[in-house]
Automatic annotation (TrEMBL):
Residues 784-851 form the Fibronectin type III-like domain. PROSITE patterns: GLYCOSYL_HYDROL_F3. This is beta-glucosidase. It comes from Podospora didyma. The chain crosses the membrane at residues 50-71.
Amino acid sequence: MQSENLLKASAFMSNSSPGPASPSTNIVPTKPQHGKLAQRFPSLQKKRGIAAVVLVVLLIIGGGLAGLAALPRHGGGGNAEGSGSGGSGDGSSISNDAFFYGQSPPVYPSPNMTGAGLWAEAFTKAKALVGAMTLDEKIMLTSGTSSKTSCPGFIAPIPRLNFTGLCLADAGQGVRGTDFVSSWPAGIHVGASWNKALAHQRGLGMGGEFRTKGVNVLLGPVVGPVGRVVLSGRNWEGFSVDPYLAGKIVFETVQAVQSVGVMASTKHFIGNEQETNRVPSGGIEAVSSNIDDKTLHELYLWPFMDAVKAGTGGIMCSYQRLNNSYGCSNSKALNGLLKTELGFEGFVVTDWGAQHAGVDTALAGLDMAMPTGDTFWGSHLATAIKNGSVPQSRLDDMASRILASYYKSSQDRGYPSPGVGMASDLTKAHTVVDARNSSFRSTLLDGAVEGHVLVKNIRNALPLKSPKMLSIFGYSARNSDVNTPGGIISSWLWGAQSNDIMELLTGFGGSGKVGKTSISFNGTLIAGGGSGAPSQSYVSAPFDAIAQQAYDDGTALFWDLTSAKPFANPNSEACLVFGNAWATEGQDRPGMHDDYTDGLIKHIANQCNNTIVVLHNAGIRLVDQFIDHPNVTAVLFAHLPGELSGRALTSILYGKSNPSGRLPYTIARNETDYPVLGPDLPQGQFLKFPQSNFSEGTLLDYRHFDAKNITPRYEFGFGLSYTTFNYSNLAIEKANTTSSGNSTALFAEYPSGAVREGGPTDLWDVLFRVSADITNVGNADGAEVAQLYVGIPGSDSVRQLRGFEKPFINATETATVRFELTRRDLSVWDTNAQKWKLGSGKYNITVGRSSRDLPLVGEVVI
Ligand code: BGC
């Protein structure tokens, strides 16, 4: 139903789904195309001067154009059906956004928060405070402003009402851009650990550091990108391409972070799957992720459901367009999916500079504009409220959602002052706020250890046994030459110590530049680049940790970390070769392997019959160039372990830890085996409006390999241990009562529970309980990741992950693992009913070591 105000407002809409727009009548100014860099780095102009800006802008413009020519093509774009005017009709380039109107369904009005469930008390307090606020004060709450801190986002205090303001800071792997904090394992590393309890511990430790620093809102965790585009630059920030695995880990992370009083802002909602053309630039709009309703629900929305279920205080809307409507003005995504279907009670914040309209975004469900609201909100929002374009109730709801999240986290009581530990310039003398907490040292180490995945280990190459001589090769073994804060254009601030800061910054403006690198040659990787990079203040490099161990063992150590064709001493008992695969925000990766590193590995393997390869990979990295070389005896995917990288690796190499990581993605034999390799580019009619059609539906990663019968090199869920586990005794039990005690509704076709955070409450009713025994039949103690997959009738996928547990089992002992299958786990999205549907039929239940090694087989019938 359209309200009167909405009808008035439609005259001012510039760029969204409903109705024809008349940009010329816009009272809200259109965003200047070249204001992007200033928006992204608000302090850049002020502090470092215009010269630096000009330099970067020049690079961006040059690099962006060149990048278009250089990037790989994926045949996805180009066949979107337009419903409005704007196309030329003769096949030439579409020039007007009106062509796309209607592709994303309009959902209005924006639902007000209800204060249901756990939000009741916070909602009451928020409403009282909002009631005492003036129009200007409410507007201040909704828009970022500058501050004397290094918080990338800041909401001004309102002293009259004892509101102290809010600091918003990156990101998912530790506080960025400050000192005296830890560098936690990155998202991909946590995903590879398949360890829910450890993910929770990490959330507690990391959240505590945000709190001590006076960060009110942690800008993470990441569950979008999901990882559709294998070469996407930000996949490493998320946990897994599998929505169930990502969902379980994000749930733990959000709960843990928020349990110490920090608001999480789960991002980027939704369909943010490529970096190329992620933002509008040079007259080209941001790419549109064109996703059908079923795929949207079953894949991309799934982990966000878990984050909302966990109570995430914030959700960050994304840069790109969803079905041709910008992420932060998409009423279907924000009002519809998030605030109606998922019953989200918190606030929606823009990605930085992702607001492209004023009235539109307000009506579509946006609550906070970052890093500034000046362009579209601020005084413009006041005008829109006064003339009725935006209802007063919408502004009150924005303010209530922000304040309720703040109260729900008890940030009104004894919370450190916003940004207290976020010095604006680390190169100048400043007060030290040490946020590290020594009781989380073991979590940092366990987290680093458990994300390593051993995929090859022949002739007992690992663990090492006090070798007499060891040789080390490759650029990723040692620390970078420099690790020190410098201004906004410093490698340190963006995690580019081992790479090239100018290359990284180029990506912030558009589609990347020619010659972007696959690897970081200047040292080891503990994280990827961009806003997800943590602030390194200590790094245990693999080389240093191994050297320490070599000293203890009396091992002779030789190394050549720079040559492409180094000499390997023939007396080496083992040769360790270190490579990496680099990825950063702002641009997509140029490839899935690189000839330099592959050549180096083969060169060493030709000389050394015990060549052990360690790859720090910020994304999927292919290994077929060398994997079958008879002298390559072991291969470890070391992912992005955070600051205790070397210490963790050494513990695995020498058998003090038993490897227990499993691949959170599939490693193919060839690039072409993946359904979507690289980003979509502007092409054909869509030169100004790049299109990315998600035509593969839900068939990503192992779903695709299974459905198309493609043999991977290493399948999803795979990983070796120093011991062996046997599986037996599968037992399946049908539940007979719902959580509410209502047994008749348990197997009903559709859920009927009230919508609370995450969706209808009965989606979480347990329908089946499954158990299995796992026996450690080897000689080493260790942890096993038991995985449960379900074949859902009527689904495109052969099987889908629907349970995993990670018991630690001593040699010769047996553990019983238990899984619960909920209504949600067994349902598919019914596009007609617009509900999750529990179909009738036979569900295959398999349990085992990986997605392709499933010794226990059973079924249930509904
Ligand atoms: C990123 C976000 C980040 C924000 C603030 C944006 O460029 O996409 O993930 O939180 O910047 O730094």
